[in-house]
Amino acid sequence: MRCPRNRVNPRLYFFDRDNVEILVKVLNGCAINGHHWVFAAPVTDLKFQLRVQDRRPGWSQEEEKWLHENRRRGTAGTVSDTTAFPCTAAEIAAAKAESSGSGGEKGGLAGALNPLAHVSAASATPLAPGARTDCEPGRPALTLRRGFTVSMCYETDKGEVGHARDWGLGSFQSALMYFFDRNNAEVLIKVLDGCGVNGHRWVFVAPVTTLAFNLRVESPGGRIWTHSNRLGQTAAAKRDLSAFSCTA
């Protein structure tokens, strides 16, 4: 497994650098629950073992590691672990000081935990946990190979609606999107050419968010594929090997 350079959101690929297989991120939750959090969103049905190693000074490399496996062929699910690595007392103090001093606008979890800290108040109706959003994906955030466009809207518990933005992965068939902070990617999506296998183009999506959202992939001919999530639920990864017919 090889990883392009990026210390915040490693994108792991197996065979082709243009075909990203796993999104991994480690967020600083020291000010929230005294731990660093690990999120892994695979879009592969291959068997694999993923290891995240804690290389902070003073920690045992053998003891401080986080593992995730896909032991059988089949779509691997998104995993979130908010107690993956304990923070030191100094890290907790520093994180709380930064959060207090910045008003929640900076830091590893600013966008994820307090997404409206930098947004002016608006008259919006709060969204209840477990509810779907009726937001409409707007202008496409990005375009993949052969003209497939991707757009996505999200809604917070306060009823604020926003639109996902292109992270700028620079791939023809894989893309990352973020909501609030580019250092905190939220969705990995890809459209693959399976025409020679089953006569269809395939869609894979792996979100790492609990916000309500509606995601839309549109073909050049106007056909639409969608995926959504309810507020407060860890969004499920999804694959569709018959998303778009190659003859349509």
- Strand fraction band? 35-45%
Structural class: mainly beta
The end-to-end distance, rounded to whole angstroms, is: 36 Å
Q: Give me the number of helical elements.
A: 4
Shape verdict:
globular
**Total domain count:** 2
Rounded to the nearest angstrom, the radius of gyration is: 19 Å
What fraction, in percent, of the residue positions are helical? 10-25%
> pLDDT under 50 segments (min length 5)?
1-8, 103-122
Mean pLDDT across the residues is 82
Would you report the number of β strands? 16
Order of helices and strands: EEHEEEEHHEEEEEEHEEEE
For the sheet with most strands, the description reads: 5 strands, antiparallel
Write up what this structure looks like:
- The chain has 248 residues and is mainly β.
- It folds into 2 domains: 11-113, no CATH class; 142-245, no CATH class.
- It has helices at 30-33, 89-102, 110-113, 195-198; strands at 11-13, 20-29, 35-42, 48-53, 65-70, 79-86, 142-143, 149-155, 161-163, 165-166, 174-178, 185-194, 200-207, 212-218, 224-229, 238-245.
- Strand 8 (149-155) and strand 9 (161-163) form a beta hairpin.
- The chain is globular and about 60 Å long.
- The two termini are 36 Å apart.
- Mean pLDDT is 82; it is low at 1-8 and 103-122.
